[in-house]
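dude i think i finally got it to work??
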Amino acid sequence: MFADGVDLSTDRFTSKRQDVALQAADVSVQEFDQGQGLALFLNGNSSNSLSEGRLFSFTKEDEREGFLQTADIDVSISLPAKLSNVLPLDNTTDVRVSYILYNDDSLFVQPSQDAVRTHIISGRVAGMQVKNLPEPVVITFAPTEEVSDEEVKVVRCVFWDFEADAGQGAWSSDGCMSQGKANGRYTCTCNHLTNFAVLFDVHGSGFGEHERLLEAITYVGSIVSIITLVLTLLSFIITRKQRQSARSPHARNQRLVLINLCVALLAILITFLAGIDQTASPIGCTAVAALLHYFLLAALMWMAVEAVMIFLAAVMVFGHYVSESFIYKAVVVAWGKQTILIPNCR
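look at this
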């Protein structure tokens, strides 16, 4: 950690940028046992930039005097007092305490319906893993976006677990509890130190008790559709030589149109099943969305080509209306047009 090794020329080191702010301080064990904390004031800053905010350090004594209740605080973290009783501290040296604030959750990517609508704040004691505290760390958050109580279904106090999801990291509520909302701010208590935030579920908890059932139906239906499409393609391949001599140009084109339509639908289902949960990576999420967009447009185009074929079969009943190059033109339009449309979609 940078804050652990930074050389302090004064009693505190503070660095503020638009999206990240850091403060580190060396305090004596006696000061540390008074209960250290940090608060951020943006003072109604419309740009919401951390570089224009003010950082204030405080102690438990300041809290008892009403510092956190009277001040217009956007986010704060307060460490419990008497931590020297639970941490292996050297009474002869100072304790390095550091805090980092993040303007948003862009560095904490997780596929979730829930939204982080507060700043993210972390606390750290240099060289120590602080967990299972008898007295909790207290964190308060003011929402960065206006959210009415009617919109919010669930509010969760969370921390970033770096080891979750096979090392990719995820928000977890283990060891954290919500203490409710007061004066427009949410209060959380956690028994350890790391990165903290509040998750707002503005959509409700998925489909509730039916979520697992609907998910199973989706997967089973998709797999059954894949199997039937593969069987359809196999039937076209098996009967190709048997019916080759008896087909008119129109019948041949219609057969090829159906094959391309099956391929497009098959690609949609495979992409959906393989990529629907691959949203942890922005690149992977974008790739899956682009492929789904492409194959959906291709399937719609092949349906349109099929409609033209039906029109030719029902109205233009004579074979000379069917061009030998019809299927080649259809391939260019149905598979090629999407490569022009998708890059222009945002």
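The longest strand covers residues 20-27.
im so relieved honestly
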